Amino acid sequence: RQGPALLLFSLLSAAYSIALNAEEAVGARQQQFDMVILNGRVIDPETSLDAIRNIGVSGGKILAVTAEPIEGEQTLDATGKVVAPGFIDLHAHGQSILAGRVQALDGVTTALELEAGLLPVADFYEQAGAEGRPIHYGTSVSWGAARIGEFTGNAPVADLDFFFDSMSEQTWQQEVATEEQLANILDAVQQGLDQGGLGVGVLLGYAPGSGHSEYFELNALAAENEVPTFTHARYLSNSEPKSSFEGIQEMIAVSASTGAHLHICHLNSISMRDIEPIALAITEAQRNGVRISTEAYPYGAGATGIGAAMFRGDGWQARRGGISKSDFTLDGVPLTDDEFDRLQAEAPETGIIVHFLNLKERPRDQVLLDMSVLLPGGAIASDGGGWSGKDGIINDDVWPLPETAHSHPRSAGTYSRFLRTYVREQGKITLSEAIAKASLIPAQILEDSVPQMRSKGRLQVGADADIVIFDLENVSDMATFEVPARPSIGFEYVIVMGTPLVVEGVVDTNVLPGQPVRRHQQKGTQ
User: Fold this and answer.
1) What angle do CA 202, 204, 205 make, to 5 degrees?
2) What is the model's pTM?
3) Which residues contact 8 (CB under 8 A, 6 or more apart)?
4) Which helix (H) or strand (E) holds 32?
5) 3-class SS at 330?
6) 84 beta partners
7) What is the pLDDT along the chain (526 residues), one digit of tens a residue?
8) Can you say whether the dihedral through the CA atoms of 60, 64, 67, 70 is positive or negative?
9) Strands 467-470 and 392-393, bridge-based pairing
10) How far is 252 from 263, CA to CA, in rounded Å?
């Protein structure tokens, strides 16, 4: 029971709190904002807010989230619409103006190249900054590029084409580094971290012959720098030995022994049909304090270069669950055995799509995909790429996206497909939980090492004004494997640092409000 003094103190505190809130509400009403978003269903997954609210934005920041009337120089009426934090894609290979515009129509306000990474890191940020970007951008340090440079003598170029153009070289993919080579690789990675790289991108599955000790040393370096590693697991197989489960075991063991935060990329495609034991191993490791995070995308097909090491060697098809070469498609058309062999021999850099789950004919495959996508605490990430035409990569000044452009449909439709399928049609996850997986959780995965991310993935006072407004009843992916160049619909407004990038469902090509996402500079770099 409370004594008289304590009761009086409680009453005075409550009165002060009410007065303070009233004063803040009056302040919000009197303030003139750059932009106000009125009467929307505002969802902030961190505070569990899900209510009709008004949002005031000035100077690229959210300055008010209130039930009180507010006014601004620009007014957006969000009546009947969802207002949410902009989506954060941790796995976006399409680091270009064109790819960013397509992703913006899918609700993405931040797209980061973390799985593959790039090198030199400084070159990437300099080029992207000079060109401008519609949405926020950033990269990890590419271990793969550092390894290629050491084994081939070719200086890395800050473009993913450098990686795919090196697929005909087998040394970096299959040979264990000498002590001197390893030291040089780690030095190159450290230089990228010093230049602001967001972690270390580790395409381990593309260099399965690299030593296990090298992966350990790489994660030890990441732990020393207090950054995550983003790993494509070493194996892509449901057959022992050298199975996907074994690859996940290696990652868990390395994280536990080095203390590194280890992020597992595209859990759905790396697990294939072994997601049940893999999910159990991951969740038990997390429960026991191992710093593991995950991501997945809502498709049963992946995309890569046809010359990847995982599609070579004796018995590789059996190890991939009996996959056939016709399960690989190019420009939406299944490959014949002869076409597959020719491309792998003559053009190993050729981008193809591989269907590792058959969602139409095997209902169980959809269940397995759902386990990856809905894993508690996991993020949604697209693994999307750039766009190409018959003559190669499409120039960034092209808009709208040409109907004949090619990419994986996830490059255009990941987040709207996730909302359409798992929230609206099937109800397997609440809207707030889905928004968390698309915005808050990705921000939390990075925020310990990248302070910028503490202001993203939220709709709160002081957060960055990265905001999406959409109609849940209409939001939908339009891209298909046959015709991937169809941007999503339903995202009526996409706001990047307070600047409207998508207005009434149309991209404003006159603005490039994207900003670099980068770690603090270290060790005297400029």
Assistant:
1) 135
2) 0.91
3) none
4) strand 32-44
5) strand
6) 468
7) 445 554 555 555 555 545 444 444 555 666 899 999 999 999 999 999 999 999 999 999 999 999 999 999 999 999 999 999 999 999 999 999 999 999 999 999 999 999 999 999 999 999 999 999 999 999 999 999 999 999 999 999 999 999 999 989 999 999 999 999 999 999 999 999 999 999 999 999 999 999 999 999 999 999 999 999 999 999 888 888 899 999 999 999 999 999 999 999 999 999 988 999 999 999 999 999 999 999 999 999 888 889 888 888 888 887 777 788 988 888 888 899 999 999 999 999 888 888 888 888 888 999 999 999 999 999 999 999 999 988 788 988 899 999 999 999 999 999 999 999 999 999 999 999 999 999 999 999 999 999 999 999 999 999 999 999 999 999 999 999 999 999 999 999 999 999 999 999 999 999 999 999 999 744 443 3
8) negative
9) unpaired
10) 10
Q: Whole-angstrom Cα distance, residue 495 to residue 437?
A: 19
Which two three-digit tokens encode residue 183? 């030291």
DSSP single-letter state for residue 439:
I
| 39 φψ region: left (φ > 0), alpha (ψ -120 to 50), beta (else) | left
Q: How far is CA 106 from CA 94, 413, 428, 514, in A?
A: 14, 6, 20, 16
Cβ atoms of 185 and 177 within 8 Å: the answer is yes
Tokens 């300099």 map to which residue? 126
Phi (first) and psi of residue 384, to 5 degrees: -75, 165
Q: How far is CA 524 from CA 176, 194, 195, 200, in A?
A: 33, 8, 10, 20
Token duo for residue 303: 């995309």
Enumerate residues 6+ apart whose C-beta is below 8 A from 135: 100, 103, 104, 108, 109, 110, 111, 496, 501, 514
CB 344 within 8 A of CB 306: yes
How would you classify residue 65: left for phi > 0, otherwise alpha for psi between -120 and 50, otherwise beta?
beta
**Strand, helix or coil for residue 445:** helix
Backbone angles phi, psi at 333, to 5 degrees: -110, 130
- Helix, coil or strand: residue 23: helix
- Please give the full DSSP string across 43-71, using - where no structure is assigned: EETTTTEEEEEEEEEETTEEEEEESS--E
Check: CB of residue 295 under 8 Å from CB of residue 380: yes
